[in-house]
Amino acid sequence: MTRIDTTFARLRAEGKKAFVAYIMAGDPDVETSLAVMQGMPGAGVDIIELGMPFTDPMADGPTVQLAGQRALEGGQTLAKTLDMVRAFREGDSETPIVMMGYYNPIYSRGVDVFLAEAKAAGIDGLIVVDLPPEEDDELCLPAQAAGLNFIRLATPTTDAKRLPKVLQNTSGFVYYVSITGITGAAAPQPADVAPDVARIKAATDLPVIVGFGITTPDAARGIAGIADGCVVGSAIVKEIGAGKPVAEVLAGIAALAAGAHAA
Amino acid sequence: MPDDLINSYMTGPDEQGRFGMFGGRFVSETLMPLILDLEARYEFAKTDPDFWAEMDWLWKHYVGRPSPLYYAERLTRHLGGAKIYMKRDELNHTGAHKINNVLGQIILARRMGKTRIIAETGAGQHGVATATVCAKFGLKCVVYMGAHDVERQAPNVFRMRLLGAEVVPVTSGRGTLKDAMNDALRDWVTNVRDTFYCIGTVAGPHPYPAMVRDFQSIIGKEVRWQLAEQEGEGRLPDTVIAAIGGGSNAMGLFYPFLDDPSVNIIGVEAGGKGVDDRMQHCASLTGGRPGVLHGNRTYLLQDPDGQILEGFSISAGLDYPGIGPEHAWLHDTKRAQYVSITDAEALEAFQLSCALEGIIPALEPSHALAHVMKIAPTLPADHIIVMNMCGRGDKDIFTVAKHLGFDMKI
After folding, report:
1. pLDDT for B228-245, tens place per residue?
2. Closest Cα of chain A to B248: distance in Å?
3. What span, in angstroms and rounded, lies between the C-alpha atoms of A29 and B193?
4. Considering only alpha carbons, which residue of chain A is nearest residue B27?
5. What sign does the CA torsion over B203, B207, B211, B213 have?
6. Residues in the active site (chain A) (predicted)?
7. What are B395-404's contacts with CB under 8 Å, separation 24+?
8. pLDDT at res. A175
9. What is the four-CA torsion angle of B15, B16, B17, B18, rounded to 10 degrees?
10. Contact A27, A33 (CB under 8 A)
């Protein structure tokens, strides 16, 4: 059982949907992003997705791209991101943290070294956008062996034939990408997404969380209502990018969380 | 007991799309089903006589193939050593080897029922080739090009627009070729159902590196029979040389010779201002290390934290921080040798080709020619070098004029 499994068990017992929130580590600097991170559980965030900046984020829209650039310009590295996680864990030993990003910085560090460091720092799961099931030997299987969840993305192009392959080595939860597109794109309609979520849920016991394009508390409620929860990323990152004070960013996150939890 | 198949360099990639440890399919899930579909369609087309009949007809009547294999007599005499041949792919329609591959991919896209073609381009040669073939077949074409390249390659931008393509200047990241590729991938992920991504080089997720190589291999196949025609039955080149950005013209020349051990294979990377720790070059093999970008594992220019660095070269067509995975493998297995040539050396070769052979080369093959200038004088007269003159220099005259201090306004 990872913290992710425990969290979903608790939410299920409470009859609540999960609210997952994304920020970019080191955006615009370590101090600010750590302060936001530390405030997230209090704002109602059930699972924190912590972005690892990369120079070439092929699956991300402009908002997350710029956040990564700000972080890198501020000198963010993988080591500093893990330092942030350690600092967070000093005050919070329960909120699950999922690191999200691209493979090259991990590959560059060395998979085994990275996994040992990530586990020790208090990371619970990984979402690595450019590692489909076809490349499971690279990181997915070693991560599971190291006791980390490997959370896979399922998408509208993942058809019935392919779904079992996508689900096979997934753990923690399934992240359903509600649109064909990049992060921060147009919002999906809950009614359009519901059949796909139902299709995935029929094939797995894992919780299904829906993300991409959710920007308002109402949308969070609508989408969480047809799944086990929802993810908001770009809408939060945009506030941080606009230079809003941490308290204001957290107030926005709290409103989104309230939306998801009202589902 | 030797087994030709096991000892062959020509059987890759494997089922995972790997050349040794390089290659693969490092893409998001949204694209994965499409890439598998593309692989299946390509596997079928590869052995479909109708597909190749269409290619051959267009290569002959639309592109102007076969391109000549030309004995550069004055250059040979000037350098005073090996006998130098140029494979004249700069004479193709649109002025470079790029169209060899574009035709193959567009025919495949049509067979897959795709109605919208996207492409990335650096110098603009692949963009122009894609826009050209899209115009011919009446397909919608969108070309992503780094904002910086849009500015320095204005004539090619205008050509693409004349041909009906939409050129999207890319300002994300640093606005270079790799960022153009990122934005093309973002477009593809968004419009995956009707859109075909026509990649311009032997990189990207499997099956692109193998597919682009196969389409470009027409270059090396022609060299085989053309050289035999001029030098006698069974005569193979002793050395084949080509410039490498992503490496498509080089793979096209090299591939048909991989299993001929007597053929020495040399790839020439762009050394920019010199391959040292200033990193002002694009020599991924000589100055980079293995990593994962744009769907494949290969040698990349990157910092210690795995962040990708910008390439630097006088030639916009070589300005990419990676290299095709098959080159990475040929490098590690030592079947091919990879060297680098600086901007200054390429400029010298550019001028020599103009002066001695009346051929204005693109800056990309000028790099290959510069290496020929280095080695030819050390080789005997019966040593045959074939270099790939993969593009013509019209697009580069402004850049060269600037470097030579020539005022184009006069």
Report:
1. 999 999 999 999 999 999
2. 22
3. 39
4. A130
5. positive
6. 49, 60
7. B395/B95, B395/B123, B395/B124, B395/B125, B395/B153, B395/B155, B395/B156, B395/B362, B396/B315, B396/B350, B396/B362, B396/B363, B397/B360, B398/B152, B399/B152, B399/B314, B399/B363, B400/B347, B400/B350, B400/B363, B403/B314, B403/B343, B403/B347, B404/B347
8. 97
9. -110
10. yes
Question: How much is the pLDDT for B152?
Answer: 79
| pLDDT value at B176 more than 90 | no
Q: Mean pLDDT in chain A?
A: 96
A250 has pLDDT over 70: yes
Sequence ranges of the domains in chain A: 3-257
Domain ranges of chain B: 19-59+98-211, 65-95+217-403
Q: pLDDT tens digits for A195-234? A: 999 999 999 999 999 999 999 999 999 999 999 999 999 9
CB-based contact (8 Å) between B205 and chain A? no
In B, residues 265-294, which contact A (CB 8 Å cutoff)?
Answer: 291-294
The string of pLDDT tens digits covering residues B209-226 is: 999 999 999 999 999 999
Distance CA A64, CA A236 (A): 10
Q: What is d(CA B107, CA B111) in angstroms, rounded to the nearest whole number?
A: 6
d(CA B250, CA B257): 11
Scan for tokens 């029922």, then name that residue.
B113
Q: Could you tell me the CA-to-CA distances from A9 to A1, A18, A40, A205, A260 in Å, in that order?
A: 10, 11, 20, 12, 17
What's the CA gap between B194 and B208, in Å, rounded? Answer: 18
Q: Which helix (H) or strand (E) holds B69?
A: strand B69-71
Phi and psi at B65, nearest 5°, equal -80, 160
Best A104, A138, A182, A234 member to test B by mutation, with max B CBs in 10 Å, is A104
What is the model's pLDDT at position B315?
A: 83
Nearest residue in B to A127, CA atom:
B28
- Strand pairing category for B83-87 and B69-71: antiparallel
Torsion over CA: A126, A129, A130, A136 (sign)? positive
- Identify which of B288, B399, B340, B362 has the alpha carbon closest to the alpha carbon of residue B92: B362
Closest to A230 measured CA to CA, from A199, A258, A200 = A258
Say whether pLDDT at B2 is over 50.
no
The answer to whether the predicted template modeling score (pTM) of the entire model surpasses 0.90 is yes
CATH class of B65-95+217-403: alpha beta
Which residue in chain B is spatially nearest to A177 when comparing CA positions?
B30
CB B87 within 8 A of CB B386: yes
* Of B34, B189, B291, Cβ closest to residue A182: B189
State both tokens at A11.
Answer: 């939410």
Neighbouring residues of A144: CB distance < 8 A, sequence distance ≥ 6: A150, A169, A171
Over the range B65-78, which residues count as b (16 or more CB within 10 Å of their CB) and which as e? bbbebbebeebbeb
Tokens coding A2: 């990872």
Question: For A61-119, what is each residue's pLDDT tens digit?
Answer: 999 999 999 999 999 999 999 999 999 999 999 999 999 999 999 999 999 999 999 99
Task: Name the CATH topology of B19-59+98-211.
Answer: Rossmann fold (3.40.50)
Identify the residue whose tokens are 């019935």.
A160
Superfamily of domain A3-257: Aldolase class I (3.20.20.70)
Whole-number Å distance between alpha carbons of B281 and B239:
25
Q: State mean pLDDT over A127-136.
A: 97
Asked if the C-beta of B14 comes within 8 angstroms of chain A's C-beta atoms, the answer is no
Residues 149-168 (A) with a CB less than 8 A from some CB of B: 152-159, 162, 166
Rounded to a whole number of angstroms, the CA Rg of chain A reads: 17
